[in-house]
Write a structure and sequence with these properties.
Layout (H helix, E strand, L loop, with lengths): L1 H11 L4 H10 L4 H13 L4
Length: 47
């Protein structure tokens, strides 16, 4: 029963800001896109 509750809790959990940023940066298609995305995150334009 505890495992079921843990599984439900993990599916309902909202990703942290850091996790969202890592996913966003991981979607970069090349080096230049990654650099652009990193600059956006640094400036606070994303998230």
């Amino acid at each position: 029963m505890f495992q079921q509750l843990r599984k439900i809790a993990s599916t309902l959990r909202v990703p942290t800001r850091r996790e969202r940023v890592e996913i966003y940066l991981g979607q970069a298609t090349d080096r230049y896109d990654l650099e652009f995305r990193m600059q956006q995150v640094s400036r606070g334009e994303v998230f």
